[in-house]
Write a structure and sequence with these properties.
single chain, 1 helix
């Protein structure tokens, strides 16, 4: 039973991470999580930092 709970927790964490990555890619972010992604030459656009 403990193994099943641990596997479910790991699957949940992976699902949340994959969902986040897919959402960010759809927004056009190429370097997800990079603090310099707004100024990167790969991005090609300016970000609105607040």
């Amino acid at each position: 039973m403990t193994d099943l709970i641990l596997v479910l927790i790991i699957v949940l964490i992976l699902a949340v991470a994959i969902t986040f990555i897919v959402k960010e890619k759809k927004k056009g972010n190429k370097c997800i999580g990079c603090p310099y992604s707004c100024n990167c030459h790969k991005n090609g656009k300016e970000c609105n930092e607040s």
